[in-house]
Amino acid sequence: MQMISNCTDVELKKAAKALKDGHLVVFPTETVYGLGADATNKKVVDRIYSVKGRPTDHPLIVHVSGIKKIQQWAIEIPDFAIELGRKFWPGPLTLILKRSKVAENYITGNQDYVALRVPGHPVALELIRNYENIGGLGVVAPSANRFGAVSPTSAGDATEELGTFLSGEDFIIDGGNCELGIESTIIDCTGLTPIIIRPGCITGQQIENSTGWKISAISKKNEIKTSGQLVSHYSPRAEIIKSSKVFEGEGFIAMDVFSTPLGAIRLASPKTIEEYAKILYKAFRAADHQGIAKVKIIPPSGIGLAASIVDRINKASAKSLKGKD
Ligand code: TXA
Ligand code: MG
């Protein structure tokens, strides 16, 4: 695997060519790092599943450089989806739409729907633009971690997750720490109204404020498969427990207003909700690096982004899929 640390035009063109030639390219986005591949090349998409250890019926998000490009991938796009794209792209938003013929079963997990996102990170956008300029249609990119594990928010974390599974012609692009730190908000746009099926940095409240619509959150009956919907996900090896009762030698994550209990190992003290999102996965990773067995966490309170963070904490603390990664 080759590392690009200096994101010059020449280097990003090299990585774009690698994508087009059927290699894997790990790249930064504003949410988490993605494991990128040409969405029209089955062979390399198969490698995504094996590198991640992810079941093949879990679909992938196609990343494009702008809203105009979604027409290649989706049909019967409702007006509300266009409006969402116009308002929030480039940014941490993924829309589920009815697929076109270009979106094959091997990226949609055999469903008739395709997930699309225009990422906001300048390196991601430049990489995708360069790849499109040489004929690429879209870059599938799941988070660059092993299945069920914690999403990486830096190139170092992505290397730790996947470095040994990549081959000589694959790339990892180092674009620094991700600004937001949790995955994009996913909105199902296949019905009459938009439904949030994975909460994220763009909140229902923001959408309501900017569009005037009331937006609903996932209903349990929703049949679209989203791996982020598994009860357990985003888990470190350490056991994550929501509690303020902390014993000696245990890890502790809470807003900075909570003081560190005696003998606890403080892993993060975010001052704001935004900072909480940004450092949550780093703190989980730090627990594993330090060999900490149990982490006690006081989740943030409130709606919006705080609720999205709580969603990730709940998934990290659920035990049913432990050992999956
Ligand atoms: O922020 C993000 O969304 C990051 C960055 C790299 O863009 N990507 C990401 O991808 O989180 P991934 O694969 O780790 O999570 C995407 C989720 C999965 O749970 C997947 O099942 C769901 O999106 N998804 C993808 N395509 C879908 C589809 N057609 N229908 C329903 N869910 C879909
Ligand atoms: Mg993921």
Task: Chart the SSEs and their pairings.
Elements: E1 2-4, H1 9-20, E2 25-27, E3 34-38, H2 42-52, E4 61-63, E5 74-75, H3 79-88, E6 93-99, H4 105-108, E7 113-117, H5 122-133, E8 139-140, H6 155-162, E9 171-173, E10 185-188, E11 195-198, H7 204-211, E12 216-217, E13 239-242, E14 251-253, E15 265-268, H8 273-289, E16 294-297, H9 305-317
Parallel strand pairs: 1-9, 2-9, 4-7, 6-10, 11-12, 13-16, 14-15, 14-16
Antiparallel strand pairs: 2-3, 3-8, 4-8, 5-6, 6-7, 10-11
What does this structure look like?
The longest helix has 17 residues, at 273-289. It is globular and about 60 Å long. It starts with a strand and ends in an 8-residue tail after the last helix. It has helices at residues 9-20, 42-52, 79-88, 105-108, 122-133, 155-162, 204-211, 273-289, 305-317, and strands at 2-4, 25-27, 34-38, 61-63, 74-75, 93-99, 113-117, 139-140, 171-173, 185-188, 195-198, 216-217, 239-242, 251-253, 265-268, 294-297. It contains 9 helices and 16 strands. Strands 1, 2, 3, 4, 5, 6, 7, 8, 9, 10, 11 and 12 form a 12-stranded mixed beta sheet that branches. The chain is α/β, with parallel strands linked by helices. Helices cover 29% and strands 18% of the residues. Mean pLDDT is 93; it is low at 320-325. Bound molecules: threonylcarbamoyladenylate (TXA) and magnesium ion.
